[in-house]
Every structure is written in C-alpha cells, then in structure tokens.
Amino acid sequence: PPAFPPGFAHYPLYFSPDQQAELIDTVKAGVAQAPFFQPTMPRTGAPLSVVMSNFGPLGWVTDKDDGYRYQADHPKTGGPWPDLPRLLKDLWHDVTDWPGLPEACLINWYRASANDGKGAKMGLHVDNDEHAMGAPVVSVSLGDPALFRIGGEARGGKTAGLKLFSGDVVVLAGKARRSYHGISKVDYGQSALVPHGGRINLTMRVVGAC
Ligand code: MD3
Ligand code: FE
After folding, report:
1. Range of 174's domain?
2. CATH of the domain at 115
3. Ligand 1 pocket by Cβ (under 6 Å)
4. In whole angstroms, how far apart are CA 48 and each of 25, 27, 100, 195, 199?
5. CA 60/CA 69 separation, integer angstroms
6. 83-to-108, 146, 163, 187 alpha-carbon distances in Å
7. Neighbouring residues of the ion ligand 2, judged by CB less than 5 Å
8. Is residue 60 within 8 Å of residue 70, measured between CB atoms?
9. Once rounded to an integer, what is the mean pLDDT over residues 9-33?
C-alpha cells in the first residue's frame, strides 16, 4: 500500500467524549459570534461544499473576487474571529514543539445536504496560502467519520487512505505538510455529536509574516 509521507502522525481518539462535547460547545459559541459562511472559488465563484468559520487572530477565507487569503475580520459581519479555545491551545503545545501558538484555526463543517444532497467532501489540494510552510499543521476531527487521503508533493501520484473518527488528531509536519490531501467521503449519520449532523474539522495553522 502507498506509504504516508514523512511528518504525518495520527493520534486516534486523542480527545475523550467529554472533551469532544466541550469542543463542540466552543464551536457553537464561536459561530454565534462568527457565523458559518459559504466559501467560493476564486474567479469562477463556484461554492466549496463545506461551510466555514475560524478561531484565532486570523481566519482563512475565499471568494470569487479576492480568492484565497487570511484576514482578521469575518467576511460577512466584519467582526473579529473568536479566541482559540483552551483545549486547542493545549493540544498544539502537546503535539508540536513550535514556539508560540498558531494564528488561525479553520472550522470546516461537512453536511449531508451539501453538494446537491451528495454530501460535502474536499478534493485533493495543497495548503499553501501560509508563509510559514515549515510550521506544523494540527487537525481535529469531530462527528461523523471520514475517509482522509494523502499523497505526495506532486499532483496525480498514489495516495494513502485513513478513516478519521471523532476525537482523532492528525499532525502534518515536514514533507506531509506540503502534500496533496483531501476528504474523499464522509459516513453521514453515524454520530450525534455535531448539532444538525455531519462532521466538523478544526485545523490550526501558523500563517507567518507577509
Ligand atoms: C495535510 N481539511 O482545511 S484535515 C483543510 O478534514 C483540509 O477538513 C481536511 O484539508 C478536513 O485544508 C483535512 C487534515 C489535514 C489538514 C491540513 C493539512 C491534512 C493536511 C495540511 C497539509 C497536509
Ligand atoms: Fe487542506
């Protein structure tokens, strides 16, 4: 089977059910302040199938006119993003040796009703809107399980697959940080954790200087 790239680490069920519920409570409070928005692709304006929000001083956003970027203000309300929850700060320090905190934590919500009822997913892509490409990325899965795929640094190569369950943590450093990855399918209706159902992914990133 294809190998996982160097720098990839998986911590199955890192968070207990109580901690997962606490994380969902912080997401609920966060999106009361900074509501989920519908991201759209640069130039075409085609919607991504997930909806998004962010925690932290910076948030990742995208729309037809201005494309992929980080900004301090919510694209609809103009207000700030909520603070990074304590459980996520503690996780960052536990699983990385990075000096300091990530500036951004993207919240992706995958829903069964998205994508004309086929369910939200995320195609293979590389995260390269950050200046600090040497910093690790830390990701938390909540709610319905999903099939995560990761390949190499070139488009079109073989990919390795891994099912991610609620409470799982994935750390991407080194080569893995620069690799193609995506969510090929979500097993909707398996978990009652996420209000209104589906899967929530929380991904912390260091953005770095412009
Ligand atoms: C590998 N999110 O937000 S999480 C993304 O489940 C993203 O929502 C997926 O890809 C999700 O960009 C995958 C695991 C993940 C996150 C960031 C990565 C894997 C990564 C960055 C580089 C390489
Ligand atoms: Fe990504």
Report:
1. 8-205
2. 2.60.120.590
3. 106, 108, 122, 127, 137, 139, 148, 170, 172, 176-177, 179, 181, 183, 201, 203
4. 25, 20, 31, 21, 15
5. 6
6. 17, 27, 29, 30
7. 127
8. yes
9. 98
Q: Compute the distance between CA of residue 44 and CA of residue 23 in angstroms, rounded to an integer.
A: 34
- Give the number of domains in the chain: 1
The protein residue whose alpha carbon is closest to atom 14 in ligand 1 is: 139
| Residue 134 falls inside a structural domain | yes
57 CB-contact burial (10 Å; exposed 0-12 / middle 13-18 / buried 19+):
middle
Read off the pLDDT of each residue in 54-65 and give the average, rounded to a whole number: 98
H/E element, 87: helix 86-95
Query: Given a cut of 90, is residue 2 above it in pLDDT?
Result: no
Is residue 58 situated within a structural domain? yes
Distance 182 CA to ligand 1 centre (A): 7
- pLDDT at 4 (0 to 100): 95
In a domain, 1, yes or no: no
Instruction: Report DSSP state, residue 79.
Output: P
CA of 60 to the centre of ligand 2 (A): 11
What ranges in 147-188 are assigned the alpha helix state H? 174-177
Residue 3 lies in a domain: no
Give the ligand whose atoms come closest to the C-alpha of residue 177.
1
The complex's ipTM? Answer: 0.97
